[in-house]
Amino acid sequence: MPEEKLYTYVIVRDDLEMPAGKLASQASHASRLSLLHFIRDNPHRLAEFIDSNVAGSMVVLRAKNLAVLEKAHLQATNAGLPTAMFTDSGHVLLPHFDGSPVTTAVAIGPARREDMRPMTKKFQVVK
């Protein structure tokens, strides 16, 4: 098992009104990118994730718009936390996705919950 309980918070844009499947895929893309950043920066921890068959818990939150998403990403970066923005591109799902690049989500973590709390506490869980 990983040495401590780790979480990844994924914040998705609520203003894009994504259907459940699209939202799930965007959250997954962002989470995977953030995990890859974590592994890149902590290669000695890779084996424990593989051996325990877990990458920590994931919580999906919603943000009002892109500006709020970018602010959370900047706060996480400034705090030294693994984080990744995901931009969807080439997929059409009107009205918000016409194939042009659209930033949809940011993932923060894996990290300890208390380290991410300052940037995640204002968001609501996706239902």
From TrEMBL:
Listed Pfam families: PTH2
Catalysed reactions listed for this entry: an N-acyl-L-alpha-aminoacyl-tRNA + H2O = an N-acyl-L-amino acid + a tRNA + H(+)
EC numbers on record: 3.1.1.29
InterPro entries found in the cross-reference section: Pep_tRNA_hydro_II_dom_sf (IPR023476), PTH2 (IPR002833)
Single GO molecular function: peptidyl-tRNA hydrolase activity
Keywords tagged on the record: Hydrolase
Domain of life: Bacteria
Name the UniProt record assigns to this protein: peptidyl-tRNA hydrolase
Source organism (scientific name): Gluconobacter potus
